[in-house]
Task: structure prediction
Amino acid sequence: MFEFLHPTRRGFLLTAGAFTAWSFAPQFASAAPGRDPRFLMVVLRGAMDGLAVIEPAFDPDFERARAGLILGADGTPAGLPITGGFVMNPKLATLHEMFGQGQALAIHAVATPYRDRSHFDGQDVLESGLPGAAPVSTGWLNRAMSQLGKAGSVKAGGLAIGPTVPLIMRGPASTLTWAAGGVKPATEDARARLLNFYKSADPTLASAFGRGLDLERIAASKADMDAAMGQGMGQGAGPYANQNSNFVKGMQMVGKLFTDPNGPRIGAIDLDGWDTHATEQPEGENLGKALVELDAGMAALKASLGPAWNETVVVVATEFGRTVRMNGTEGTDHGTATVAFLAGGAVKGGRVLADWPGLSDKALFQSRDLAPTTDLRAVLKGALRDHLGINEAALGKDVFPDSGAVKPMDGLLTVG
Amino acid sequence: MALADEMAVTAQRRFGYGAVPDGWRKLGADARETILSQLDGAKYSDGSGLLASPDIIRELRERQKQVREARMAMANAPANGAAPGGNAETSATPAMAKVPDVAAAAAVTADNKEIFKQKNEFVRTQFENEAAYRQQMAVTSDRPLIERLTDFWAGHFCISCSKGEEVRVLAGSYEREAIRPFVTGRFRDMLGAVMHHPAMLAYLDNHVSFGPNSKAGQKQKKGLNENLGRELMELHTVGVKAGYNQADVTNAARIITGWGIAGDKDPQPGMFKFEPNRHEPGAFTVMGTPFAEGGEAQGEALLDMLAAHPATAQHVADKLVRHFVGDKAPPALTETLAKRFRETNGDLRETMVALVKSQDAWNAAPAKVIPPYDMAICCERILALNTDPKKVVNFARVLGQPLWTPRSPNGFPDNDMAWAAPNALVKRFDYALQLSGQPKNPPEPMELASALFGPALKPDMQTAIKRAASRREALATIIMSPDIQVR
Result:
């Protein structure tokens, strides 16, 4: 694994920093004075076509292999050149700006350890942190929170944006949820009475309902503050400012809750719309539209976090990639390796990290997919270790079981 | 508490849409027999009075055509208005000519907007009428188990409106045509109806999948889309753990190329149509079974094999048990159902009889928090409401269950606690409170609770009802009680 500087220099920097002394990292960096790290995982459901998001335009086989899907080919806007001969999809304007500011990086040819092509097993592996598909009831982000050793308070709880708790956030550490929409809220008193009823009738419902009320109070106080300041949902969301994107609203709420003194600091949110089997249109109504929404969400999050953006790491990842070649219906079918992003003020950005496998027919995984050369868990481990201070032993055993051989990637962040 | 009363309450929760006033009395001394008798009722006949899928497709296509034409007219109109004439002040004639053009362009624009609006209106009305029919069936049926099964199978073979208007407009008719008639019939028949239905063919792209070596594939340089081939195996039949590989998926997709929707020039537009010109020629093997070339029959043979595969019996049994009993149901119960499914060649009525007859299905404690849509149906039944279906659909959407619009082809989540997210429970209470203010003559809460649960009414619910600050809050408390929210 190395920073991708030039396509012909494969192997360069391969050893640099490979054996930094992780064991000297503080066990709980989050407890370090002056630091209040935030971590957000964005799960893109449906398998994002990484090759249409960050194009390896330098690859000699690129144009042939990707015919029909190339950015700027049919009079569409040209891609945005970034480092190392890679080109970014122009629909990611905000993310591109973050790249330029050194606050976002991409990891290419990355994959979870899952090698089949079921969305649902693939997402389970991405969220469970296990080496393969297996029945499981907890997610790695929740187990990572358990490592922080301060469960119980709202601040320590995880935040899941959406009406249900995704697998990645399920587990022993307490979880809050928030979703846009709803009808006129019940009074505090009525809610307290129902909570009392649950306490005697059903402890499980009592616990969930109680946590729902905790978050509701924080969200309500934030809404009041917004009203007083003349702000509202939709600020800083670019083309989605006045549209009904629950993802963008959710990203804004993440920012609000992450900056509340008693709010959560670790969260997960997801976005659909990546399963581009037919008429993919990397810059159009299909993939292009999904990218615009993702990008608007990133902008909304950054604006909503304010100065806390500097202490934030956002990971954007999908369950797997798509076929390199276009299928019979101007789309792509389920594949393997793809792109993941890290963004945030705490990220050492402006780079594409890749051990580039190539796009020649021989280089493809099972003759059809971008070959995986980086384990996504290495990226996640690097971020969790350096940002939240979770030690490597716990990462290899509890957070990502049986992954001791997958070393945390070094140097992803400005700290650590 | 008498055992019979307890069973009557369980019966309504587990095999229906929850307790209704005096429902436990009506189930009688043998709740199990009453539930079983629901499986024996009359075969479904579609009394919705709503359009059939081919008619819907034809109308949508016609309206889409009008929209396309209107778009073209709009693109041309301003050019016509501005092109000739040059300076209007120096030349009277062109200026005179120009005025009607501008007016005509404005008129065209207004007409066109009306055409766009009418098409969208058609799609929306279609969806709303279907949603209303579904709600009415669920709320008023005296065989709630059949409604629960409809919901289960519509989820198993789900389509999603997120695909676009061509699926949205068919979502309800798909359920009426491909799901409802078969919920107590044969699995193979339902699978066949699903795989031939335009909604499924469009949802998973099969109508645009070409055999790369077919005539049309060669001529138009088009090829395979493996979406439906994969989900046919992974979700609809054998399940992802059945031990197939990528080659099996590709071959399944090849075998069903040509399965599509008849176009406007075909004799029966909007119906299923097998197009030999798109069908990949050749023999293919799926999961070790060879399928000789045979056009449409090749695909039918594939469906036969998949429906009869033991892994399908296991997959279906596992999902049914999880849905009706819970994640922690005894594995023996799944075995019982899988065995019955195999013995009867996928007879879904017999498979359900095995479930209802099993003591395990009655003994297991309530474990599943009900999905938002089901909660809305429960509210209608408990409070005898007739809520606008748009409001019910919206409630379910906000809570993560937009009607006929799951996020992915594996449907809505079905594990025990999937719908117990903290914020969602808070919103449920808000909704329950709102609905509890709807009845013009609201029931007396304690009497309602007694009518709902009879001798099984628990002291802590009585306490909660007494403590409520208003009649309305008391009614919402009943709706929010674990006896309604968990089954």
Residues 22-399 of chain A form a domain with the Alkaline Phosphatase, subunit A fold (CATH 3.40.720). Confidence is low (pLDDT under 50) at residues 1-32, 227-238 of chain A. The radius of gyration of chain A is 21 Å. The longest helix of chain A spans residues 203-229.
